[in-house]
Amino acid sequence: MPSHKYTSMTLSFLISLTFLATPPAVATHGVLCGDGIVDGDEECDDGGLLDLDGCTRECRYEAVQRIGTLALQATSGPGFCQPATNALGSAFTGVGLSSFNDSLQEGIDTDQLIVLFDLLGLDTADGQNDADVEVGVLGGVRDGADPSPVGIDSWYLAGQALLDGDDMPTERLTPGAISALELSAGPSDVFLPFVDVSLKLRSAHLEALVDSTTSLPEPPPSQVAPGLLAFETLDGSGAADGLCGNVTVGSLATVPVPESVTSGATPCLDCAGQSRIYTSCGVGPVTASCHSLLDLVVGGCQVVSCGVINVISPTQPDVGIGANPPNALVFGASGGGIDKVIIVEADDAYSSWFSLTSERVHITNNLGLVFRDGFETGDTGGWSSATP
After folding, report:
1. What is the total count of domains within the chain?
2. CA dist., res. 318 & res. 10, Å (int)
3. Band of the pLDDT at 196, cuts 50, 70, 90?
4. One domain, residues 190 and 323
5. Is 312 a member of any domain?
6. pLDDT on residue 231
7. pLDDT value, residue 306
8. What domain range is 320 assigned to?
9. In which element (H, E) is residue 100 found?
10. Does 57 reside within a domain?
11. Do 335 and 355 fall within a single domain?
12. Average pLDDT along the chain
């Protein structure tokens, strides 16, 4: 085992890194944020100036929600959807939509599908009226260091793919505001984490009720203002609420076709113009030799016998680019031995409307950090003993 003997130069280097990881306290809100003392109008002060640790660099409580239920709807969406057609949801029949939504919920329940909302610029943790707030959209995984079970105030590590160099979400629903406990954010284009891929939603818009129930959140942060209360949930399951967005054909083409429609007791049948036979991608990504969710939506699916049970009606995208209509999608040779949808314009899209609910959680990427920019874990075990 190599010896870890550090010279005075090494110690100076480590001290410099520590300084970079925890910038000096700065004056904000009329007090000194980052000094570890909660005073003035600070909601928290953990002694640092990093985000993603429960307390922002402005000493405000980080209001984060995790989607707990998500379901594609079958009917036209509410008025805030642009457009409200919901072509994607309308493609599914009752049995098909139920199966699709069951798969979504299973992904959420097994932590394969984790979508986090980070409410940026929220004035107060209780989520009352706020004229200017953005909703950052992130993916993530469960933090194995979480001492509590899954549920409210549980810990998650946000995926780096949707974070910028300052640990801020790159995907944001904006502009946003909260009025009379109703959160409205968007429309804007965002990438929505979806199991192992991301769906691109054009003109995405979120409407949800902020729960009037508030409570003292469990740590982090450990240092909060006396009497701090944070809202617990968002409810976007009402007839006038939810998440709308136009899902691009390019992103649907990255989602593997469900295994259930390719094999088993009731695979999709070859029914002229109404249904096709599909090839599974197994546990891998979509390739030229297997089918995607886009192929399924365009090709349709009937089971048991042609004309007996319709699972998905063949459906074309309904949203084009600008004033242009969407391009018609047809099947053609893929080079992988099967016919697949030939994409003309990847940003042509299907309008969609999802209902959802979410609950308060914590993002803990930077909890207890000493080092940043390449040393995010703070673990120096892998450092060379030859460090100068």
Report:
1. 2
2. 61
3. confident
4. no
5. yes
6. 98
7. 97
8. 254-345
9. helix 94-109
10. no
11. no
12. 88
* Helix or strand holding residue 105 (H, E): helix 94-109
What's the pLDDT at 365? 95
**Within 10 A of 41 (CB to CB), how many other CB atoms are there?**
13
Asked if residue 205 and residue 266 are part of one domain, the reply reads: no
pTM, to two decimals: 0.87
Question: Is residue 116 a part of any domain in this protein?
Answer: yes
Same domain assignment for residues 235 and 86: yes
pLDDT at 116 over 80: yes
Phi, psi of 336 (to 5 degrees): -110, 15
Q: Which residue has the tokens 């391009």?
A: 327
Give pLDDT tens digits for 238-283. 999 999 999 999 999 999 999 999 998 899 999 999 999 999 999 9
94 pLDDT exceeds 80? yes
What stretches of the chain adopt beta strand conformation (E)?
Answer: 26-28, 31-33, 63-72, 115-120, 134-142, 155-158, 172-173, 176-179, 182-194, 197-210, 214-215, 230-231, 233-236, 242-248, 301-303, 309-312, 330-333, 339-342, 349-363
Is 204 found in the same domain as 91?
A: yes
CA separation, residue 127 to residues 60, 171, 172, 176, 245 (Å): 12, 21, 18, 13, 24
